[in-house]
Amino acid sequence: MARPQAPRGHGRRRVIDAAVELFGEHGVTGTSLQMIADHLGVTKAAVYYQFHAKEDIVLAVLEEALVDLRAFVTAAEAEPSPDEAAMVALRGLVDLMIGHRQVVAALMRDPEVERIMATHDDLNSLVGRLTGLLLGPEPDLRRRIAVSVVGAGVAQAGIDPLLADVDDETLRAELLELGPSMLPRH
């Protein structure tokens, strides 16, 4: 007799959670759908029932972060001045990284994730808008370098093993003090 099946989507959260854990250990490139299935104690077909490809799992992992990114970029774009827009964007970026530390750690610098992200038009548009907010109008060389350093620093701080013992609120406070001090005003 066949086992009853849960409706499609019922196990999606379990697959996503298992994938994040395995991506953190092995990277996306080093994690197979079979590994995810084995981790969950299900068949590979059960994982395929929820997601048709590993790329779909990566995009599902990113979806919550994309919702947050879209919200703070839109809020920053509504600010009346470039400096205020940059600060709202920076706060949003810090909050995004803090709120999604495990996902950032699991996905950052993985070549397969970079390939997937490069083909994701919505994400690329949001990142372009965020970068524009941080750069402001007519950025000089100093501003471009500062935005690069701050952006990379915020992301690195969230995954740095040297900072693993720092609680989220302390890390957020420090990043929000350091970040603006590095960005020259317009």
From TrEMBL:
Pfam families: TetR_N
Keyword entries, A-Z: DNA-binding, Transcription, Transcription regulation
Residue intervals of the HTH tetR-type domain: 9-69
Superkingdom to which the source organism belongs: Bacteria
DNA bind region: 32-51
Keyword Cell division: no
SUPFAM superfamilies reported for this sequence: Homeodomain-like
Protein's UniProt name: TetR family transcriptional regulator
Organism: Terrabacter tumescens
